[in-house]
Amino acid sequence: MVLKTAWIGLGVMGYPMAGHLQRKTGLDMKVYNRTAQKAETWIAKDQGKTATTPAAAAADADFVFACVGNDDDLRQVTLGTDGAFQAMKPGSIFVDHTTASANVARELHAEAQKRGIGFVDAPVSGGQAGAENGLLTVMCGGGEADYAKAEPLIMNYAKMCKRLGDAGSGQLAKMCNQIAIAGLVQGLAESIQFGMKAGLDMEQVVEVISKGAAGSWQMENRHKTMIAGKFDFGFAADWMRKDLGICLDEARKNKSHLPVTALVDQFYSEVQKMGGSRWDTSSLIARLMR
Ligand code: NAP
Fold it and tell me: If you classify domain 4-166 with CATH, what class do you get?
């Protein structure tokens, strides 16, 4: 029996992820996108059918995947009048790739359980390039049995996928990811700014220091564009502020301390005021260079 799948949200991330899943598995897939044209474009390139609502896409599906913007969007496509949960059959599984709060993951997990549906929160890391190359890192929360069924499908667009605990654990792990990135990118921005102002050739400096203890993915992949002042390479400041807001809310609840994260969040608000809402996260250097 060929599994039936649905995909909700064909944005920068969802579009290529759904493509990998369809092409590598040949599964029967229905896609829904709020802006219908994107779904039409997707099926012209990949096999599948479009649906006019999340519910219509999800009816009959064994697995429903989603990758939308934030908590409210996620509630709308699941619990809304035409939401997927209204139509999903018992025994089916909803896999959510949105970066959202742990609270909404727990809430939707509980709602799903009432309907006999599985729910796996599965936010991703790796950016647009990771999605396009099918090499994302996926952090999951939810029941073990549901996760075990979802993992082989997720691995069609991931290089690493792991269950980290009950519902919400995937989102909490993604918060750890974003907290670790925030301070690191600011440190990298300060380093490059300092070196440039000191008159060093920072391309050459990075060639050396990236091989030592200061090396990082951000240094490897973003130093050239940071030096050039080009910020059109992926995850936008607006998205980062959404994510850091989620981290700071959670930290208030679990009583952890995120002083650098809070500061960097404010730095991104300055980047937004500079017109950089859609600039990528490495644009922290732009506010240092003003
Ligand atoms: P995006 O390009 O803006 O796409 C968002 C998708 O969600 C679009 O398909 C959009 O439909 C749909 N959507 C939003 N609100 C909706 C609603 N209320 N009802 C129905 N559909 C709705 O965003 P993205 O870059 O793919 O990011 C998606 C998620 O992945 C976010 O949570 C983001 O934080 C996370 N993420 C992004 C990256 C990255 O590098 N971009 C990396 C890691 C994680 P329309 O086409 O109609 O707007």
Answer: alpha beta
pLDDT of residue 116: 98
Closest ligand 1 atom number to CA of residue 14: 26
Long-range CB contacts (within 8 A, 24+) of 278-281: 278/236, 278/237, 278/238, 279/231, 279/232, 279/236, 279/237, 280/222, 280/225, 280/231, 280/232, 280/233, 280/234, 280/235, 280/236, 280/237, 281/181, 281/185, 281/234, 281/235, 281/236, 281/237, 281/240
* Per-residue model confidence (pLDDT) at position 2: 82
Give the residue extent of every domain in the chain: 4-166, 172-288
In this prediction, residue 64 carries a pLDDT of: 98
Low-confidence ranges of the chain (pLDDT < 50): none
> Of 123, 120, 119, whose CA–CA distance to 243 is shortest?
123
Instruction: Tell me what pLDDT residue 234 has.
Output: 79
Q: At what angle do helices 202-209 and 169-197 cross, to 10 degrees?
A: 130
CATH of domain 172-288: 1.10.1040.10
Q: Which of 144, 135, 180, 182 is nearest to 162 (CA)?
A: 144
Annotated active-site residue in 4, 30, 149, 174:
174
Q: Which of 13, 64, 157 to mutate to test the pocket of ligand 1 (most atoms within 8 A of CB)?
A: 13
Q: Which residue has the tokens 């050396």?
A: 208
Ligand 1 site, residue 124, Cβ cutoff 6 A? yes
